């Protein structure tokens, strides 16, 4: 049975907080108190891994993480406003990192053939699908915005190629 009573009485909070409250017994109002302790380190670690792959130098990656975490250019405003949006942003960054790692193997002088494309396809896309479904359950609006951003990035890549 769905926890519909808790969902409708949650003052507009998303279904993820209701499910969290239903299974853990912690009030949905108290969840944001601990969200800053995991959002900044996890998001910084994912951004560091992504920037290290982009720049190939550790110093640039650390500087990029510093800029994105502690300046007004970055995602620090998103991390402390509403905890499901911060969690969805982290999940979107993880999806982008997984897809970037997979796409990085295909960017060569010659286009890849079908055997190269289908190698380890399930190893990448099953976690991406699971993370996206959890992001959609966590905060659907942010997840859809991130999905549209990924689609635009891929469309630009395919039009250029």
Automatic annotation (TrEMBL):
The chain crosses the membrane at residues 7-29, 35-51, 63-83, 89-107, 128-160. Keywords: Membrane, Transmembrane, Transmembrane helix. The keyword Disulfide bond does not apply. This is Glycosyltransferase RgtA/B/C/D-like domain-containing protein. It comes from marine sediment metagenome.
């Amino acid at each position: 049975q769905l926890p519909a009573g808790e969902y409708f009485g949650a003052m507009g909070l998303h279904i993820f907080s209701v499910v969290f409250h239903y299974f853990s017994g912690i009030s949905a109002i108290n969840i944001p108190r601990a969200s800053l302790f995991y959002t900044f380190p996890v998001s910084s670690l994912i951004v560091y891994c992504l920037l290290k792959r982009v720049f190939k130098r550790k110093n640039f990656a650390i500087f990029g993480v510093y800029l994105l975490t502690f300046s007004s250019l970055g995602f620090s405003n998103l991390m402390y406003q509403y905890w499901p949006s911060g969690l969805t942003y982290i999940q979107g960054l993880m999806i982008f990192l997984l897809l970037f790692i997979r796409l990085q193997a295909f960017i060569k002088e010659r286009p890849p053939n079908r055997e190269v494309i289908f190698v380890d396809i399930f190893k990448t896309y099953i976690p991406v699908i699971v993370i996206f479904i959890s992001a959609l359950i966590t905060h659907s609006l942010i997840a859809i915005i991130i999905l549209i951003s990924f689609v635009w990035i891929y469309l630009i890549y395919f039009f250029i190629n």
